[in-house]
Amino acid sequence: MKGRILIAEDHESIAETYKLILEAQDYEVTVTSNGQECIETFDQHMSSKENGDSGCYNLVILDYHLPLRDAIDVSKHIFSKCPDQRILIASSYPAEVIRKSAENLVNEVELLIKPFDLEYLVDVVAGRKSVETIGRGHGENRQEGKNDGRQGVKLQVNK
Amino acid sequence: MDTIHTKIQLSAESNKCITINEDPIAHRMNKERGHHSLKYDDIPVPCCRVDDKGFIVDCNKLFTDLLGASPNELIETSLIDLVDTSSYSVIEKILAALRGESTPFTNHDQENILLKRRDCSFTLPATLTLKLIQDGVGGTVACNIAILDQTLTHRKIEQAEKDRDELIRKEKLKDEFIAVASHELRTPIQPMLGYALLAKKKMVSEEKAWDGVLTEARRLQQLVNDILDVSRIDSVNLKYNFTKEKINSLLTSIADAVRMELNKDITLSAQYNQDEAGLEVELDRSRITQVINNLLTNAVKFTEKGSITVQSKAFPAENKIEIRISDTGKGISYDLLPHLFEKFATKGHSNVQNNKGTGLGLYITSAIVRGHNGEISAFNNEHGGATFLITLPITQTTQDASDAEALNVKGMNLVSNQDLRAALEYFDQAIKLNPNHPKAWYNMGMCLMKLGEAKEEASRCFEKAIEINPLDAESWNNKGAILEMLDNNKDALKCYERSLELKPGYSRAWQNKGGLLQKMGNKKAAKECFRKAVESSLK
Lengths: 159, 539
What we know:
The structure holds two protein chains of two kinds.
Chain A: E1 3-8, H1 12-24, E2 27-32, H2 35-47, E3 59-63, H3 71-81, E4 87-91, H4 95-101, E5 109-113, H5 118-126, E6 132-134
Parallel strand pairs in A: 1-2, 1-3, 3-4, 4-5
Antiparallel strand pairs in A: 5-6
Helix pairs in contact in A: 2-3
Chain B: H1 24-33, E1 47-51, E2 56-59, H2 61-67, H3 71-74, H4 88-99, E3 110-116, E4 123-134, E5 140-149, H5 151-200, H6 206-234, E6 243-246, H7 247-260, E7 265-272, E8 280-283, H8 285-301, E9 305-315, E10 320-327, H9 361-371, E11 375-380, E12 386-393, H10 399-416, H11 420-433, H12 440-451, H13 455-468, H14 473-485, H15 489-502, H16 507-519, H17 523-538
Parallel strand pairs in B: 7-9
Antiparallel strand pairs in B: 1-2, 1-5, 3-4, 4-5, 6-8, 9-10, 10-12, 11-12
């Protein structure tokens, strides 16, 4: 098994397509359908980990506009338990909107604009392609480029 | 220098100009300079002359007309009494110049003032220019003043500002709409891409993949149509094709169609009074079908069990029909209720999990109902579920009513060109064709008031306007102004107060109320009103 992925996506068909493609890549995928459920699942996973295992997932994929708690809220919670958690926010809202609301996040998250190809998602998950990172620490060095979902553009990831 | 301030006697014909022999100032001036006397009535702008203390010694007919007074009332009046309190600083500058103090004021400067008419509490924006008249030895003797009415210009500026604000507001709405619409359009494409790819890779069954693609494609289709409708509605391009339709057959057939697609345990029925079975209503068949369909499918979406009813009831005497669509479902959340008919209202709420619709249906529905000159409202039922209530006129506006509006518009154009008498004719005709025209009565009252004539009739016009539109602050204010002109101060005050209740930031009404209270002797309250007037006009 390549790793564990936690997904929060309220659109059932979309969640299902993520699960199918990622499981085919040998990831263990857990799907939740709202922000609250995602937080609960994350906490449960943290507390049931084995010794030595950090308890973080390899990746958490969040839809921006989740019922009950949105992606930014969920990210804050996750970072408070696991500062190094890799988080990817997927959304069909305009990038500017999400950049702005992620301004106050203490850590960075990756941003993927829908619609995107599932194969592109697999590449991003595996690290073969990179996407825009947003969140604190990116005010000055962030590339002010357009992120409108056009794929194949390699953006600098500021680490 | 001493000024001999003699009382100027005027002849019985009030507009005779004053000749050299009677006017000590002109006499002195002409003695020094040898000019001919100024014949005021030959001057094509309203003008007057004031002495070195700012009291009017002469003026022309245009001036007396502008101020709504007779020369007797104006001669010996101080300039201060001709203007609104907000213009006192300008008058003070003039008086200082007359006293010989050095001021930043120079000859030929144009100052903006607010003139107060003497026959009512009307104020007019105007510009004032003056020329100081010196005697030969360096003293100021008098001042000639010309005043130009700027009402027309102000109105144009106000309209332009209103138009500009409206444009800005619309731009903002458009930007917001585009942001949400693009999100909504992108969302169904994701699963379509996903399923197509997975099916190709044989990672999901074909049936499941095709179902997914089909569902999302249909959603996209509905959304695109809705967005087009919204764009037509907003650019006022949505045309209705009114035909006489048997409303109850229409409601029944739509209910039947929705019932056929139903797979929940709910009853769906159309109810109406038997003797209204053949009732014909003038409407756009396909658009009203869209409306009823939208409301019924919403009802189905939000009702798990129980019933949905479509009830219609006619009120022929009032030319209206009521249609109620009522369900026993989960009702409408109180957060959502005030915004129910706005664009994408259901999309802003992260707690609404059942928001698979386009978010535009109710906006379009409400626009169509209003386009039929009807009304729509929604409320939660006492015992659960929600009801949508639509009222529609049975027959749409008659030819007479649209002709009346055309006449009203012609009248307003004439008013813009200051041709008040001709405008009156048009408003009168408009009212004859449509006695309930919302603006024609008001416009007629305004014309009469501006002409200073037929005050009783003007008062009746405003009363009629108020009858048709009781919430119109402007009508109340003008009714007050007319009543003041008719010396009915008590009722005038009530009208100003009602106007201010309806529109608390109405500067003109505050000013009027202040003027009236001052007349009635209540200086303190008057001062407060004037302060409010200035405050409101600065907002």
